[in-house]
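Intended use. Records like the one below are meant for learning the mapping from a protein sequence to its folded structure. Do not use them to infer anything beyond what is encoded.
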Amino acid sequence: LSTYENRKANIYSLCHLPLMARWGRSDPYTDHSKILCNPVTDEPILIWMVGHISSTWFLRNHEPDRQCSVTIVPISKTAGRCANQLICGFSQPQLRSCWSFCRSYSTDLYDAREVFCSKSEMLAYPATHLKKKDLVLLEARLIRYFLKDDKGRYSHFRAQFELHAISLLHSHD
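Structure written out for the chain above:
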């Protein structure tokens, strides 16, 4: 999974993204300007990351929150460096060191402990059952959000991962 690449579906593992990946084009009908895209097709890239959960946030006051976040320790130091390079390198101005995390307003969770397969064939998994050190596959897009500069203009931006799905590969019991 950590070396997966499916060019037709535009899915790449963290360290195997197309070399010329870039922010998508601005278009009034399909605006991809805030999403990392395939340079040939201008389609958003889905990034796979494998790692152990170090923290989660799904609930606020014991109720599901609109936003969620999952922080992982990547499966290898190389994957950690790739994540850091993506976040730092696609931020403007470029950052020297970064903290990356995933967030989303709705995230699908799947139980892939017996077999990782098509999402339609996997059972749903409750977010509240995820715990530290569980091994997961995160599916995310690299997005950017704009920040004001010293003169009050939105000329700076930061890259971050936007979580789309989580597959539980192994429970840490």
